[in-house]
Design a protein that fits this description.
With about 325 residues, the chain is α/β, with parallel strands linked by helices. The chain is built from ten helices and twelve strands. It is elongated, with a radius of gyration of 22 Å. The structure holds beta-D-galactofuranose.
Length: about 325
């Protein structure tokens, strides 16, 4: 862990520079100068899931009494890299980041390693030949999430007695781990079942607005009668698609099967109303796991490299009457 005096001096210097440059007081990181400081680069605020994930980190840091330097990169990898470099300059105790895409991190993570600062990758994963560049990964098993989506579709097709179903896929941010693995897991689960044809796969970038655009374009291309199933990689895009479908006179959940991922309250409410058929859960509540690992690292304890939270799947076949509020 960093020597407090050196870091305190670095903090004062950085804060003064920041304040002078920004013309505003640098945000105090923590009231307790001896508290651990976590540098957290969050990729953006593109969805209810992401906002819930950020809140989870802030609440957990507060519970543990850690200082949290939070930077929101607004969907830009270059801003995440700059934030990580500022955390290194500040000499934080641990760096946590959710990489918007999988590649392009080796250089800055090498700088963190050279500075002796452990890195926890949270939520999404990186692609690297050197897994010594990070201490641990805490986040979902996205391949399993994709498989759950596909397994629901097989079950639904059985229940419908369907002979053939045309599937369209609205994917998340290209080259991100959830997009790649939710697609791969889904395809694994339906592989070899000739009742299903994936007729289109378009990127909605995890955004509600782009989910609307994708749905509008898919309807124009295939017509409502040409689409039987929509597999959408997150609830925001699904909710955008719902608006477009209902404006076009389609009854989602009945005329078309809708499969979504995340488990935001608004989507769960739509599931309960029969407008969505299945939501594969992806929990944003990773903060407690992250901060417990920060504490363990500060005590020199060994930590597991891969850490996946328990997740489930909510479907039309389940009794959801006592499902607790989702909180995001
Ligand atoms: C998944 C996370 C994804 C969510 C989206 O862990 O990275 O990013 O599924 C979010 O809602 O935008």
């Amino acid at each position: 862990m960093r020597h407090m005096t050196r870091r305190a001096l670095a903090a004062i210097a950085l804060a003064l520079c920041g304040a002078l440059l920004a013309g505003c007081a640098a945000k105090p990181v923590t009231a307790n100068p001896s508290a651990l400081v976590v540098g957290f680069s969050q990729l953006g605020a593109e969805s209810g899931w992401r906002i819930g994930n950020t809140a989870s980190m802030e609440q957990a840091a507060k519970r543990w009494g850690f200082g949290l330097m939070l930077d929101n990169a607004n969907q830009r990898q270059d801003k995440q890299i700059a934030a990580i470099r500022s955390f290194i300059s500040y000499q934080v105790d641990v760096i946590v980041f959710s990489p918007i895409v999988e590649t392009g991190w080796d250089n800055v993570l090498t700088e963190a390693r050279n500075a002796g600062i452990p890195v926890i990758i949270m939520d999404r994963m990186i692609e690297t030949d050197d897994d010594g560049l990070y201490t641990a990964y805490i986040g979902a098993d996205f391949l399993a999430e994709g498989r759950r989506a596909g397994e629901f579709l097989v079950r639904k097709a059985d229940a419908l007695g369907a002979e053939h179903l045309n599937v369209v896929e609205i994917t998340g941010t290209e080259e991100s781990t959830p997009m790649r693995e939710r697609q791969a897991g889904f395809m694994q689960a339906i592989d070899g079942d000739d009742r299903f044809t994936v007729i289109a796969s378009v990127s909605g970038d995890f955004l509600r607005s782009k989910g609307e655009e994708c749905m509008r374009s898919l309807l124009e291309t295939y017509g409502a009668e040409g689409i039987d199933v929509i597999y959408s990689h997150n609830d925001e895009m699904t909710l955008g698609a719902l608006d477009v479908l209902e404006a076009a006179g389609v009854k989602p959940g009945e005329d078309m099967v809708l499969i979504s991922v995340d488990g935001q309250q608004e989507a769960v409410d739509a599931l309960k109303a029969g407008r969505i058929n299945c939501i594969v859960e992806c929990t944003p509540d990773l903060g407690e796991r992250v901060m417990a690992m920060v504490d363990a690292l500060s005590k020199g304890e060994e930590v597991p490299k891969q850490n996946h939270p328990e997740e489930t799947c909510f479907t039309e076949f389940d009794d959801l009457s006592d499902l607790a509020p989702r909180g995001y």
